[in-house]
Amino acid sequence: MRVPWRTTLLSYTFLAPALILLAVFTFYPLLYGSYLGFTEYNGARFAQGLDPRWVGTANFEKLLADPLFLTALKNSVKYLLVVPALQLAALAVAVLVNKQLPGMAIFRAGYYVPVVTSVSLAAVMWEWVFNREGTLNWLLRSLGLTSPEAQFGWLNSEAWAFWAVMLVTFWRGFGYYMVLYLAGLQTIPEELEEAAVLDGASAWQRFWKITVPLMRPTILLCTLLSTIAALRVLEEVLVLTNGGPLNSTYTALMYVYAKAFQGFDFDYGLASAAGLVVAAVALILSFVNFKLFNRPEEDQA
Amino acid sequence: MSLTAATPARAAGRTLAWRKPAAVVLRYALLILILVFALFPFVWTLAIALTDKTAGTSIYAFPQSLFPARVTIHNFVDVFRSFALGKALWNSVVITGLTVAGTLLISALAAYPLARFRFPGRGLIFGAILATLVLPSETTFIVNTLTLKKLGLLGTHWGVVIPTIAGAFGIFLMRQAFVSVPVALLEAARLDGASELTILTRIMLPLTKPSLAALGIFTTVTTWNAYFWPMLVLSGAPDKAPLAVAVLKLKGQFNYDPFNIAAGAIIMMLPVLIVFLAAQRLFLRGMEGAVK
């Protein structure tokens, strides 16, 4: 069937604003950014109007020789530890609020509030919690776990800052995944649960034998989203610790940002190369995730 | 507690193990503990913001600082006067307003032909738009900053807004909404001689108000809260920075006053909290819709 030219013209007129913006601010930067990774391009060259100079894999060799980048990459991979914690907690909490009991709407909404909180506010509020005099130390002291002399600022501690930042990521994320899991839980037929109860299955058994297997597609989606988000963590680090103390919270995307926009000469080429490495790791992890959680049914028997 | 008192009656009908009172009490205890974890920072910040700092209490005098002895709104006035927070608030309103208006306009325009017409290249365009959801975007912020500099938009509100308003999420959401409008309605309008633009504005948009509202709310919350991108674009123009950036600058001030910062934080949080609580059902259902 031939399409009237007027329909085509009209369609493209309506699409034009979106397509132009997407081309300029999404597709072009994806391609050009990838190209920049293989070039020498810095603030000075940009200011003089010089074009990027092709240098092949020189940037990548420089990255591998840079201990800061290796630290950053290691920290980003370590940051993935937040994923299982986040997913298990979110799924468990979703199971808890999924029952028809009074007040559940309040809990669901309350758990979601951190999700709609700006990272700036999280930084302001959590800094008071993590402070030497803050509530975390007060809580530990009250529980008799630490003494007043042994107190320190969590964000200033080389050993603990990393985990403190991760806790904020956890806090901001668990409500989001909880809602996604709730949606998945609602597709599980209630009869299945009730039959299992009649057969004498414990809550624990029902969780692992019914909920988890039936939720596999949702678990795959959430783990995938959260793995990529954890690998790309930047804002929390930027606002809470700025990578410190002693680079203990310096992540890979922090490196991309710092090389491109901090210091004396902005190195767009090197920063782009680092971005490509992060993107490659993200792709590999997504693939692994997919393989891990998307096993065909017969494997389960 | 009324919660526990109500349970035996509920349990009477069924004998499922988890309906037993002890299990219910345990469940609520756990839920309340998690709620404290989720909301404690807000409650404490609110308490600090309302504390009369002239009374000489430390915010760290815990747990007293959670219950201010003398309540005042002076900190809110103070933070407006001494930190020019009103300017930052206005910047947030401008950036968010422009972004929401732009996103709705661009998404609706682009979604209409994708939902309603067959034309050469449609599949390709739709595929390319959806692909942006998964394409690795680690380097885009570098190139976009360079582009804005060349266009002379770096350090302006438009520079913050324009790169963000054409997104796959909005286009996809509106396309799904448009697809569900009955074809018969459009054909009747066409027979009456209505132009496509009239059909879009007079029929499609009014019928898809819930989706427009959802997209508007999502965009409002994300833009209002955005930190990294506005910080980057406006790093050379601090007087144009929105609240999300300004609040952190307050924190970095040499003479930093936690009471004023708490007040600034509450001012920043309030609009989003109101939007979220008012549109909570829409919000949570919208999220759930993402996996169904």
Automatic annotation (TrEMBL), chain A:
Q: Which residues form the ABC transmembrane type-1 domain?
A: 73-289
The listed locations are: Cell membrane
Keyword check for Membrane, yes or no: yes
Concerning SUPFAM superfamilies, the annotation shows: MalF N-terminal region-like, MetI-like
Record's keyword terms, sorted? Cell membrane, Membrane, Transmembrane, Transmembrane helix, Transport
Q: CDD domains, from UniProt?
A: TM_PBP2
Q: How does it sit in the membrane?
A: Multi-pass membrane protein
Annotated membrane-spanning segments are 12-31, 77-97, 109-129, 160-183, 214-234, 268-288
UniProt KW Transmembrane helix keyword: yes
Q: Which family does it belong to?
A: Belongs to the binding-protein-dependent transport system permease family.
The identity of this protein, by name, is Carbohydrate ABC transporter permease
Biological source species: Deinococcus multiflagellatus
Automatic annotation (TrEMBL), chain B:
Q: Which InterPro entries match?
A: MetI-like, MetI-like_sf
Short name of any one Pfam family annotated for the protein: BPD_transp_1
Q: What is the similarity comment for this entry?
A: Belongs to the binding-protein-dependent transport system permease family.
Kindly give the PROSITE patterns that the UniProt entry links to this protein.
Answer: ABC_TM1
Q: Which residue intervals define the domain ABC transmembrane type-1 in the entry?
A: 89-279
Bilayer-crossing regions: 28-50, 88-112, 124-143, 155-174, 212-229, 259-279
Q: Where in the cell is it found?
A: Cell membrane
Bilayer topology reads: Multi-pass membrane protein
Organism listed in the record: Deinococcus multiflagellatus
Q: Where this protein primarily resides, as one coarse class?
A: membrane
What are the record keywords, sorted? Cell membrane, Membrane, Transmembrane, Transmembrane helix, Transport
Quote the protein name from its UniProt record: Carbohydrate ABC transporter permease
